[in-house]
């Protein structure tokens, strides 16, 4: 009972923390960028004079030896999924961990979707898609999702975005807006994004920490890979090492941004240095002008 009470307090605290962010995320801009209006299959019916021949369902027609056409309806609401990286590299953080930042982003996006009367769902991944919760409407469903997020214990420390997105694709049955929240420290994951993008709107939210780009001068220390446990001794006061490290991080990020630009997938860079609503609104208005 104590654990449940503590968990409910965490969810409530997450609600309070993200309230200002959600209020700052412009509702009209959100809808204009991620509006519904998709076309969704409804049913098949018998062919009538004047029907578009391109809508004929040939499989059903052959089965019943008569012509049948597919009926579609306009989809007014959105399916919004937030898919979060739970691997060990996101436990790192100077003021707060990247994982904590990811929780706040996830909650902000979900509350914003709720405010716009959309359906929300959740995905959690490491080196595979460990958990998937289908999108539904309502605050009760969203609060249940946030509880699952906060109480979840990852089954792996590793990251495999390629495999995780490939598995995600199999779970998404309807057109959706998919926010992938990660530090994207993984091998190439372009191919599954290509397939996801055919049907869904994809936004990658890159979470980072200032200490990942600027190493303080504290002499010789062991740097440990949070996912593999591998350690290496480095001299953090060595100017050459500092420069090479910063250039490597910068180059890696620029390569990902370049790949995503070629693919046509939106990529947001986010850290603790700027509130999420500011970053999100700037992204919305930038996309509007394009």
UniProtKB/TrEMBL annotation:
Transmembrane segments: none
SUPFAM superfamilies: vWA-like (SSF53300)
Domain (DUF58): residue spans on this chain: 43-254
Source species, domain of life: Archaea
Protein name in UniProt: DUF58 domain-containing protein
Organism of this sequence: Nitrosopumilus maritimus (strain SCM1)
């Amino acid at each position: 009972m104590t654990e449940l009470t503590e968990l409910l307090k965490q969810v409530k605290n997450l609600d309070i923390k993200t309230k200002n962010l959600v209020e700052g995320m412009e509702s009209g801009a959100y809808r204009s960028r991620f509006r519904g209006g998709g076309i969704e299959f409804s049913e098949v019916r018998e062919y009538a004079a004047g029907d578009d021949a391109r809508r004929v369902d040939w499989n059903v027609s052959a089965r019943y030896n008569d012509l049948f056409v597919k009926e579609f309806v306009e989809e007014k609401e959105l399916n919004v999924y937030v898919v979060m990286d739970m691997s060990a590299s996101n436990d790192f953080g100077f003021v707060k961990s990247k994982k904590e930042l990811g929780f706040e982003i996830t909650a902000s996006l979900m509350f914003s979707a709720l405010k716009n009367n959309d359906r929300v769902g959740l995905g959690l991944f490491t080196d595979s898609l460990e958990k998937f919760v289908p999108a539904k409407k309502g605050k009760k469903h969203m609060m249940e999702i946030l509880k699952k997020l906060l109480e979840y214990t990852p089954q792996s420390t590793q990251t495999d975005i390629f495999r995780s997105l490939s598995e995600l694709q199999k779970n998404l049955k309807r057109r959706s807006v998919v926010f992938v929240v990660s530090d994207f420290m993984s091998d190439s994951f372009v191919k599954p994004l290509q397939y996801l993008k055919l049907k869904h709107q994809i936004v990658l939210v890159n979470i980072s920490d200032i200490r990942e780009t600027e190493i303080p001068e504290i002499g010789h220390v062991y740097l440990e890979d949070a996912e593999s446990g591998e350690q290496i001794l480095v001299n953090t006061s060595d100017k050459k090492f500092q420069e090479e490290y910063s250039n490597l991080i910068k180059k890696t990020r620029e390569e990902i941004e370049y790949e995503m630009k070629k693919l046509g997938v939106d990529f947001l860079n986010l850290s603790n240095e700027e509130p999420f609503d500011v970053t999100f609104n700037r992204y919305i208005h930038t996309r509007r002008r394009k």
